[in-house]
Design a protein that fits this description.
The complex is a heterodimer of chains A (about 160) and B (about 475). Helices cover about 70% and strands about 0% of the residues of chain A. Chain A is built from 7 helices and no strands. The relative contact order of chain A is 0.11. Chain B starts with a helix and ends with a strand. Chain B has 10 helices and 25 strands. In chain B, the strands form 5 sheets. In chain B, strands 9, 10, 11, 12, 15 and 16 form a 6-stranded antiparallel β-sheet that branches. The longest helix of chain B is centred in the N-terminal third of the chain and has 24 residues. Chain B is α+β, with helices and mostly antiparallel strands and about 475 residues long. The relative contact order of chain B is 0.09. The chains are: A mainly alpha (about 160), B alpha+beta (about 475). At the A-B interface, helix 1, helix 4, helix 5 and helix 7 of A face helix 1, helix 3 and helix 5 of B.
């Protein structure tokens, strides 16, 4: 893969990668850092990519999980000062699912995003976040149950 | 397992992330615990919304969810998540309604609480079955057969003069979260009515539905993949005795599984009105004979025979080719079944109960086999005429000793199917082809695909068809009442 081809593929999926990074890290600064790290790593390993055009974004996403995970694990030791940007700034638009996920407590949203946007297994989530598997399970359940309730509320609003 | 433990593992179970021992324990629990089963259904709906909603937000609306059986559901579903969520809630309501309102017989028939809504959806789409359901004529059948991790559970049996319907759950063949990858998952079919030792009945396809991976999703146009396995129904011609034997085959099984299901048909006969038909119609060398009519509270069923030289051996006319003429206008059959033998066809067509008379069964078109001898040289340019219809050999492929060929023509009203194929070798010899599979598609052109094992040590030069199935337009009419 030449430099130009790599650039072309990144250009196609950058908005997507930016959003998944933001969804996980909830801070534009961190999301930018993680994405930059991921793209540098991807560029260095570009000869290892064997998939087609459509799967490129998922390949980079795998790498992004590692760079974002490093930030998340480091972050557990500091108290975030400029944590959550308002969801509107993330262009929730009319996407109600994202609207609801972005309102979850950070530690729950991370697990939900890693599970249902990054498609990681529970064990991989535990490794990425540096937390026990049992904690992943309980956070996943808590997050899903909150989402289900808020989806139910939303449904009531819609049916009125 | 306690419910709290089960709930904690449900997300992993739905994504097929749990070890096999735990998966079995969870499945066992879900079968016995209505509230956890309901939770699984709800959770499944929520996680599906989540995956699709998040992918759409991130700008990957085309991104494929990781779990293939979800993919199949996704393909058929509306993209607007709110609507889908509403549908999910409706399904959940159905679920609750199932428990509250189902008659005791049906509730026990379903055996597996989680399957209530799926079985109900299967039942309620068919007039005859809906009636059977209302009359409490779906009987529980507690038959399970298991081998090598594959379990076939018979949930219930409904009988009618038209057919016997078996509701089943297939576990271990469509494991949640793993990919069917287009291979044949399983075939469930009836043992040959004649009995004998054969577990390879001649009529595996046709009106006994052969269950294949790619058909499983569209099969009967109902969602049949559930967190517990594949839920479906199989309809067979009701010419069996008190026991119906089904055979399950799968690449996962070393040997076919045999399942004997007791069938109670007495309750049905009490509510059916039956009268003989004494009408025949002859035309184009084909005779249609009315045999009998049956009326259930839901359906009018007409049984008739079709005979004639070379007529219709095995080829059942399409549903659209038969209708009932009533004072209120034509009524198309809700379903039709048939069996074929050397004497001809014996068919049953069911119409959703028209009350008025006169009623006349009209058959505009049937099909007939005709002998032809047409060869298609490989690499020939331009179409070859078959009974005046230009047929093009579109494509020819060989992979691992199996060949695939695609033919196309544009007028199916004059040529239905080409059959009885032989391979023409480079030396000019003809070798009859065995194990041919025929697939047809209706596109802008009509296409017929042919798949067969290439005979060893033969250089193919062309293909030879000896039989053509052609439509015969005759408008046969049988007075019913």
């Amino acid at each position: 893969m030449t430099r130009q081809e790599f650039g072309g593929l990144v250009g196609e999926c950058e908005p997507y990668l930016w959003r998944v990074s933001l969804a996980l890290l909830r801070s534009e600064a961190d999301a930018g850092d993680a994405l930059q790290d991921a793209l540098l790593t991807a560029y260095a390993k570009r000869h290892q990519f064997r998939g087609d055009r459509a799967s490129f974004r998922f390949w980079v996403r795998r790498i992004l999980v590692h760079s974002a995970g490093a930030i998340l694990r480091a972050r557990q030791r500091v108290i975030p000062v400029a944590e959550v940007a308002p969801p509107d700034a993330w262009q929730a638009g009319d996407n109600l699912v994202w609207h609801l996920v972005s309102r979850l407590p950070r530690h729950l949203a991370q697990v939900i995003v890693l599970k249902y946007l990054f498609d990681l297994k529970q064990a991989e989530i535990a490794e990425t976040l540096g937390i026990p598997l049992g904690t992943v399970k309980s956070r996943l359940n808590k997050g899903l149950s909150l989402l289900r309730n808020s989806m139910g509320d939303q449904e009531e609003v819609l049916s009125r | 397992m306690k419910c709290t433990e089960v709930r904690r593992e449900l997300p992993g179970y739905l994504d097929d992330e749990v070890a096999s021992a735990l998966r079995r324990a969870l499945a066992d629990h879900l079968r016995g615990c209505a509230s956890c089963a309901e939770e699984a259904v709800r959770l499944d709906a929520v996680t599906r919304e989540l995956r699709e909603g998040l992918a759409a937000w991130a700008g990957a609306a085309d991104a494929v969810p990781a779990v293939p059986w979800r993919r199949s559901l996704k393909a058929r579903s509306d993209r607007r998540w709110a609507l889908k969520l509403a549908a999910g809630l409706v399904a959940a309501t159905f679920f609750l309604a199932t428990f509250v309102y189902w008659p005791a017989t049906v509730l026990s028939a379903s055996r597996l609480p989680l399957l209530g809504p799926w079985v109900e959806r299967l039942v309620l789409q068919d007039a005859g079955l809906r009636w059977a359901y209302q009359e409490g004529l779906i009987f529980p059948a507690s038959v399970d057969v298991t081998a090598e991790g594959v379990t076939l559970r018979i949930l219930g049996v409904a009988t009618s003069p038209m057919e016997t319907t078996v509701f089943y759950l297939l576990e271990g063949v469509v494991p949640v979260g793993s990919s069917p990858r287009g291979s044949i998952l399983a075939g469930l079919y009836r043992e040959a009515p004649s009995g004998g030792n054969s577990t390879e009945p001649a009529d595996r396809t046709g009106w006994i539905p052969a269950l294949r991976a790619e058909e499983a999703f569209s099969w009967l146009e109902r969602p049949a993949i559930t967190p517990l396995g594949l839920v479906g129904m199989l309809r067979v011609f009701p010419d069996h005795g008190d026991v119906l034997t089904l055979i399950l085959e799968s690449p996962r099984l070393k040997a076919p599984l045999r399942c004997e299901i007791p069938v109670d048909r007495e309750a049905m006969s009490a509510v059916v009105e039956e009268w003989p038909l004494q009408a025949t119609a002859t035309g184009q060398g084909i005779t249609v004979t009315g045999l009998r009519a049956l009326r259930t509270p839901a359906e009018l069923i007409v049984e008739f025979a079709v005979t004639g030289a070379n007529c219709l051996t095995g080829e059942v006319p399409q549903t659209m080719s038969i209708y009932l003429e009533t004072p209120a206008g034509p009524v198309l059959p809700g379903k039709q079944h048939g069996t074929a033998d050397e004497a001809g066809l014996r068919l049953r067509a069911a119409f959703v109960c028209p009350a008025e008379s006169p009623l006349t069964l009209v058959i505009p078109v049937l099909t007939r086999r005709e002998t032809i001898e047409v060869s298609f040289p490989l690499g020939a340019e331009g179409p070859i005429a078959v009974r005046g219809i230009p047929v093009r050999l579109q494509r020819w492929e060989v992979r691992e000793g199996r060949a695939g060929v695609l033919f196309a023509w544009d007028d199916r009203s004059r040529l239905w199917l080409l059959e009885d194929w032989s391979l023409v070798t480079a030396e000019g010899r003809t070798v009859p082809l065995e194990s041919t599979a025929v697939v047809t598609w209706q596109g802008p052109d009509y296409e017929q695909g042919l798949e067969f094992d290439l005979p060893p040590a033969q250089v193919p030069a062309g293909l030879l068809a000896r039989t053509a199935v052609v439509p015969v337009w005759g408008y046969w009419r049988i007075a019913i009442r």
